[in-house]
C-alpha cells in the first residue's frame, strides 16, 4: 500500500514516532519509569492499589486514600457461578482454552448491564453533585437527578436493590469505612450523603427500603476518591478479574469437558416451526 | 523509547515497511486486489465459499470443490443453547454487550476441546495417509495411526461418537456428497476411506458402533480438499459463527438482563469450608 | 445458594426448561432441525449465504436474494494489515494464541466506529424511508434524515467517503448488482435511491463528491433485502471474519514472536513527567 | 431437546444442583462468604493481594508473604505501547468498544509467548527442584533441568535475557526482596538459588551474561510462595491488566478513530501475485 503523498523518510519517521503517545510509561534500555517514578523505587515501596491509582491517574494516593480504594477492590471480587461472567470463565475452561482466554471471554461481558451499574451510579451521583454546586439543596439535587435518570433510562436505579440479597452485607461495611475516612478528613463525604439520600428518596417513593447495594457503595468510594465514572467500571473489572481467575482455575482443577450452562437432562425450549421439508431454492 | 542503535530515517522506514508483510491483499488508492484479483471482478462472480478458499489458500477452487466446502460450512452452523459457545453468546447479550462482543466471547472458546475435534481428526487422518505413502496398507496405516493417537492423547477419538446423537444425521449426508464428488473425480477419496476405516476399527475394538460424527465428516471433506488441519478449525469457526450470531440476535430480541447459566431457583453446590472468622493477618 | 422460595422439583424443572428458549434449532437424539428444516436436507441443498439468512431470519431466501447477499459478503472480507482488526489478529498470533483466540480478539473490535458504519448507515436510510412512508418526497426525506443524523452524531456520515480510497472500487460494482436485481424485481430499489440521494446531497453541500463507500453500498443491499440494522453489523462480522482468519493463518505461517504494532526502531512518544523520586506514601 | 433417559424431577434437580460446584464462594440471601470468611469481615481487614491469595488458594497469607506477592504484582503492570497487549487495548478503544471489551481483547493475547514466560520459567524451576528432592545437587539439578527444557522447547530460556533491556531494573529489586524475606524465614530461598544458578549456567555456556528478567524474578517469587505455574500466568494477568486499563483509558481521553498499528504513511509490504483477471469458476 503506497500513499500518494510524497513524504520524506524524516517526515515519515516523525509521524510514526508520534503515532503512539503516552504519559504513563517511559522505557529506555535498562530504565523503566511509571509516571516518572523509576520502577525499581516503586517495587516494594507502594502497594498494589497505590500502583493501580498511579497508573490510571498519574499521581500517588495517600495511604488512607489507598486503604479506601483497597476496601472497594476487595469487596467486589466475586458473585458466584450464577453470575454470567463467572459461569463463562468456568465454561470456557472446559472448552480447552487457557486462563488468559477464559478471563478474556468473561471480562468481555462486564458491560453496561452486568458490570456497568457502578459507573451509571457514579454518573447519577455526579449529576446530583453538579446540581448542588449550582445551588440546589441535597434533597432537591438528588430528587432532580433521580427524575432525570429515570426519564432517560427507566425505573431501575443502578446501585440500589438486589435481585438476591435483601440487604447487601458488603454495602454497610463499605459505608462505615467511608464514614471513618470522612471523620479523618480523607474524603469530603459529599457522595456518601448523596448515596444515602438516594436511598431515602427511593424508600419514600416505593414505600419499602431499596437498600444501597455493592455497586452503589463502591460508587460512593470511587466518587469520593475522585475517579471518573468510566474508571469506576475499570476498577470493578480489576476486582472481579480475581474471582474470574479463581473460578477458572478451580474449574481447570475439577476437569470437565465442554460443560454447557445446564446439565443435558434439562432440555431447552424449542419454540420454532415444526419439522418441515426444504423447498427448492436453487 | 529510544533504541540505542543509530539508524537513519531511510533505514527505519524500510524496516517499518517490512514490518507487516502479506500475500493476501494489495491496496492502493481506489484499487483493492485479493490474491491478485481485483475485488470488483470478484464481487458477483465468485461465491462466498470460493472467497473463503481464495483468502486462506491463495487460489480459486473449482465449482465442484467449492460445493463440497459449502456443504461442510452449512452443516456445522449450530448445536443449540447447551453448547458452551452458543450459551456464552446469549449470556453475553444479556450483560449489555453488542453483537461483535458477544460473538468474540463465544468464538474465543472454540478451542481444543470444544472446536478442535475436527482439527485433531484431520491430524489423525493425515498420520494414516503418511503411513500409506510409506507403503502401509489402509488397514495397517489406520490401525497404527489410531494406536499412536491413543498413546499420546488418550482413548477419546476426535470425530467419532457423540454424547448426544446415537447417529449424527449430518455425517451420512456429508459422506454421500464426498462419494459423489469422488465419483466425478473432484476428490481422490483417500480420506473418506481412512475415515471409514477408523470407524470399522473402532467398532471391532469396542464391540459396538462408534459412528463418525460431524467433526469426523467435515474433517474428511477438508482433508480431501487439501486444507491444513489448523484451517479445519478456522473453517469450523466461520461456520459456527453463523449460529453464534443467530442466537445472539435472537436473545437480544427476547430481552433478559444478566442471564446466568441456570435459573436462580437451582442453587449451585458450595463445597468449601463452613463460615469462619477472619484471623489477624495484618 | 438457596433461594428462600420453596419450590417443588417439578416447578424447578419447568422453570429450568424455559430458561433457554429458541426458535432456531431443535435437537433430539439423532435429529437436528434448523428453523424446522432437517439438517440433512439442508446440507448440499442450500448455499452458505442461504443458511446464514435462514439462521438469522427464519425463512429461506430465493436464489436471487441470496446472490445479492452473497455479493455483499464477498465484498467486505478484508481491508489489510493497517485495519485494527486485521492487525490485532496478526499480533495475537505472535503472542502464542490459537486461531479461535486471535479471531475473537479481532472480531471484538468490530464495534461502533470500526465495524458499525454499515449499521449506522442502515439506520440513516431507514429514517429516510420512514419519512417517505409518511409522505415526504425522496429529496425532502433524505435531507431531513441527514440533518437529524448530523444533529445527533456530528458531521461524519457513515457509509460515505473514505480516508484512503478516492473512489471505492467495491461500491460501484455492488450498486450495479442492486440495479440488476431491481430490474428483475428481486428488490424494490428504494434504499438504492435513498443512498444515491445521500451522495447527491453531500456533493451539493460540500462542493465535492463524497462517494458512497463499501459500508454505504452493503447497507443498501442489506436494507433492500430487509435485514435489521444490527444484523447489518452481524453480516459484516461474518464477512470480515474471513480476512481475519486468513491473516491470522498467514501470520502463523510466517512465524514471529510478540510482534508489536511497529518495529522497535520506531520509538513511541513519552509525554509524561520527567523522572522523579518516589515520595513516602506508606 | 429431550434426553432419552427418563429421569424424575427430583433427580434432575439434584443433577442440576451439582452442575456447578465451588469451594470459593458461598451465597445465601444477605450472606456472602469467601472460602468461609464472611465478606463483611474481610473488607477493610485484608489487603487486595491477600484477597487474591485467598481466592485462588483458599487460605490467607501472612503479611510478609502478602508483601512479597504485592511486590511482584506491582512490578509487572506495564511494558508500554509496543507490547502487543497494550497496543491492542489502545487500538480497540479507537474502534469504539468500551473499557471491558478493550481489556478482554488485550488480556486474551497474554498467551504462551507473550504472557507465558513466567509460567514456563516456574516449570523449569520446579523441574530442578524435583531433581534436587531426588538427591541431585543444585548445580546438577539445574544443569539437567535446563538440558531437558532445551531438548523439548529450543534454546530460548523463559525468564532470562530481554530483547530490549541489557539489565532489567525490576529483577534486581525483586530478588533483593526475596533475599530479605528469606533472611526473615518468610520463604525458603530454594527457587531464588535455582534461578541464580540458571543465570550462572547460561553465562558459562554462552560466554556472556543473560540476566534474569522480570519473568524469571516473579517466577522466583511465585514459586517461593507456593503458587502453581499456571497461577503464575494468572497473577501476571491480574498485574498487567492494570497497565491495559490505564492505556485504554488514556487512549479514550486522547480520542482517535480506527487507529491502526502504524500511520498510513508507512505502507505494508504486499508480496503476493501481481494483479490478474478472475477466471471463470462458476
Automatic annotation (TrEMBL), chains A, B, C, D:
<keyword id="KW-0808">Transferase</keyword>
<keyword id="KW-0456">Lyase</keyword>
<dbReference type="GO" id="GO:0008816">
    <property type="term" value="F:citryl-CoA lyase activity"/>
</dbReference>
<protein>
    <recommendedName>
        <fullName>citrate synthase (unknown stereospecificity)</fullName>
        <ecNumber>2.3.3.16</ecNumber>
    </recommendedName>
</protein>
<dbReference type="InterPro" id="IPR016142">
    <property type="entry name" value="Citrate_synth-like_lrg_a-sub"/>
</dbReference>
<comment type="pathway">
    <text>Carbohydrate metabolism; tricarboxylic acid cycle; isocitrate from oxaloacetate: step 1/2.</text>
</comment>
<dbReference type="Pfam" id="PF00285">
    <property type="entry name" value="Citrate_synt"/>
</dbReference>
<dbReference type="InterPro" id="IPR002020">
    <property type="entry name" value="Citrate_synthase"/>
</dbReference>
<comment type="similarity">
    <text>Belongs to the citrate synthase family.</text>
</comment>
<dbReference type="InterPro" id="IPR036969">
    <property type="entry name" value="Citrate_synthase_sf"/>
</dbReference>
<dbReference type="InterPro" id="IPR016143">
    <property type="entry name" value="Citrate_synth-like_sm_a-sub"/>
</dbReference>
